[in-house]
Amino acid sequence: MQFLKINPADNVAVALTDLYKGEQLIVEGKAITLLSDVPAGHKFALSDIPEKTHLVKYGYPIGHALQAISQGDWVNEKSIRTNLSGMLDYVYLPQNVSVEVPQSDLTFKGYRRRDGGVGVRNEIWIIPTVGCVNGTVKTLAENLRKETQNKGVDAIVAFPHNYGCSQLGDDHENTRKILRDMVLHPNAGGVLLVGLGCENNQISEFRKLLGEYDASRIKFIETQKTEDEYETGMQLLRDIYETVSKDTREEFPVSKLKIGLKCGGSDGFSGITANPLLGEFSDFLVAQGGSVVLTEVPEMFGAETILMSRCINKEIFDKTVLLINDFKEYFMRSGQPVYENPSPGNKAGGISTLEEKSLGCTQKCGKSPVKDVLMYGDRIQTQGLNLLSAPGNDLVASTALASAGCNIVLFTTGRGTPFGTFVPTVKISTNTDLYRRKPGWIDFNAGTMIENESMNEAKERFINYVVRVASGELVNNEKKDYREIAIFKTGVTL
Predict the structure, then answer these.
(1) CATH top class, domain 3-81
(2) Average pLDDT of 78-84?
(3) Taking the domains of the chain in order of start, what are their residue ranges?
(4) What does pTM read for this prediction?
């Protein structure tokens, strides 16, 4: 197959392979001669499109023509402009959402936690309260790995960051919330929190955020108050290790899984292969009683009304409106354009406007009802599909998803990226070429869906793969020890 018309209403089609000027294509019985080369993943016009007329993809407008576009022309960011501008008024127009997904008895092997949560990893994390002790946490993690050879635990990891002091207001609270969420995360069998002593993020105050916690698994050290922070820290870590290394996996239903949904380095295939595949997986997991979380609020702009129509009630609709408008106001306060989102890589991959990107991006959450809306740093409270406030930046958004309580982040990409956050970060390629070129980055290939594999076949293969990851199979970012966190910052630094 050389091209795909996604929706009957579309007036553009997507090239599935590189197409060349002069080629003749038969589209729904009509012969179309290409007027220029069209790279794979990019669009071409199915009819003459007058200036200022909507271009339609996925059945929705993705912008308007900057000048007249002829049938067979290559359509890209030079010939199309977004229709979006400024703030919008929204009206709650609920749709009756019904997703038919059969029940499954699938299980995975995870770790039971005292608070009722279930982890897919049993790791020891060393987390600084402030960037001043980044070197200390790295040394402690390295020493414990050498001493234990990682026996009895899945990993021993330090998570340095730049914050915890010289922050005010929301920035200070965001840092505290993300670190709290990490300390309480079920993938962590044990945590050592390392402070300096004079930072804004004081350990004495931070403890209060945790509520009741297991003191055999969560410990603290203030290095300014300790004569030898390395020996004291190592002794605390040995105590944590003694507890954590006794944990064993047991069987749990997939309803216990909490999964984050993310895309980055998208291309023209993202909304055709990998993102719809995640949508099918999302609907499957929600139907089993599990939870999925969609974030990247700026990449909802242009498709937000689709999500709003799926909100289970007016209260959740109002929260979704606030989610969208808060982010628009954040852009406007900073004097930045709200709708200029697609990156150079997105455009090179075939995405021309924010509407086009958003209509592909939001497919990751399937068609299930929106059950709850989380602000940045909030943790999942409601089973089902949740929306989360966070930017599109890959590491900031992935950190936010993990902090919300997601055991795994599923990350679709058409361009590729090696990074990982503090939970397994599964890379799903939108095309087979990327999968073949970057086997050390990509964990699962969805490009087969435009070759010879049906959606149902890909879905079954993907569900089984996620279950294996939840049961302990390592993904590439874990194998290479690419694990990082990034905390959202909006204000001044003192």
Answers:
(1) mainly beta
(2) 92
(3) 3-81, 123-248, 255-479
(4) 0.95
